[in-house]
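Limitations
The structure tokens in this dataset are predictions for the assembled complex, not deposited experimental models. Users should treat interface geometry with appropriate caution, especially where small molecules or nucleic acid strands are included. An illustrative entry is reproduced here so readers can see what is and is not provided.
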Amino acid sequence: MQIPEPYFTRLFKPVLFILLLLPALYYAYGIWQDTLGANPLEAIIRGLGDWGLRILLLTLLVSPLRRIINCPQLLRTRRMLGLYAYFYVVLHLLGYLWFDQFFDWEEIWFDILERPFITIGMAAVILLTPLAVTSTKGMIRRLGKNWKRLHSLVYPISILAIIHFWMMVKLDIREPVIYSILLAILLSERLYRKIKT
Amino acid sequence: MLILKNKDLTDNDVTDFDIYQNRRKFMKNAAGVGIAAATGLPLIEANAKAVKSPYSTNEKLTDYEDITSYCNFYEFGTGKSDPANNAHTLVTSPWTVTVEGECEKPGKYNLEDLLKTVSIEERIYRFRCVEGWSMVIPWMGFPLADLIKRMKPTSKAKYVYFETLHDPKQMPGQKRAVLDWPYTEGLRMDEAMNPLTLLGTGIYGKDLLNQNGAPLRLVVPWKYGFKSIKSIVKIHFSETQPVNSWQKANKNEYGFFSNVNPQVSHPRWSQRKERRIGQFRKIKTQMFNGYEKQVAALYKGMDLKKHY
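Predicted assembly:
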């Protein structure tokens, strides 16, 4: 499957760009119109985290999907997806630092030490940062072979993200289970290909 | 006792604080239920006539809308808005409460009969959830001690525990075994007899809505919210310490006592601060949720880090 080039760059990618922006717009509208319920700050923090994870998984779907539907063009959406995942994850972190802790660094430090799910979440964001920074064309060229190596960090990062989510859930683990299954499929597909070659 | 259902409440029926205050003044002056009925005011008559209590806080009340839309009541789903969306299937009238165990007056009691001899008070309490949020709720209710005295517990009664209705048809969340149904909560006898401990029948001068645990629930303001069991159908006096539902689900995280304690942190929620619903900034959590004066003596000599 091949999308004619002008449609791909002028329609498909911009539409994808806007779609990925919608969750952020939803929460912005929610703050403005007060539609996020009794605990809007928590709704925002959780929601941004959910979308960060979802888009991260979507990023991992690109490479197998383009093989399945035979559409190499899809690879050219991966940077946008990855940067969007980072965008939501950073907002998620900012939401925690601001609305949850009000930049009380002592309290944040306690949190990192005391609550393992915070520690793991922080680690995931920190690890994701060099990937976002090195996503430009220039960086890809400069890093050469190492670029791929560096960016395979995305696998442990997504595992950390799911552990983070899983540990946060109180009792009803349906959602983390779904994400775990999706990630397991995505990772085992890669493992399978690696063993085969 | 007249119990009517107010299923068709809309946003327009939500009382804000000023109106509520004025209404209270009006109700005080009103000659009786006749006027309340004629003006379409609260429905359980005793709730509407609740007398004020010195145990009430004068902090700003949480909006009725927030109290009735942001709830943890897993019997109707695990999401915060699930109870408000799903609890309409619960039938609260007629309602029977079974009293059993170590007491002289066991039996099945109609709610009306239980309420006949008590006087309903208004108690404005802080309510602190283990998840790190809190509210200020004007409850209507009566001291649990009043009911316990009537049931004449024997000397063997060291604890009292409660059960929520177990009926997946009325409580669709019970179709999934997220918790071991029925929901169970308990108190030590001295905790149960403490004058702060309330059996709640209403909020804001109105009947409890189903999502808030209608028609009868526990309110223990110095403990995390999950201790305040909802829609009670059984009261059991026992010699041994009962295992409450959350302790059963995860005993490393939830204990029997579950007193609000900013020094004992939960693996997921720091308990040092809390988000008061409706406020932007967080506030410091107080020992025993600010009821230290009334309850600290109950735990003298106990290591509260161990007995969390």
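Some entries come with short summary sentences. For this one: The interface with chain B takes residues 37-39, 41-42, 100, 102, 107, 110-111, 114-117, 167-168, 170-172 of chain A (CB under 8 Å).
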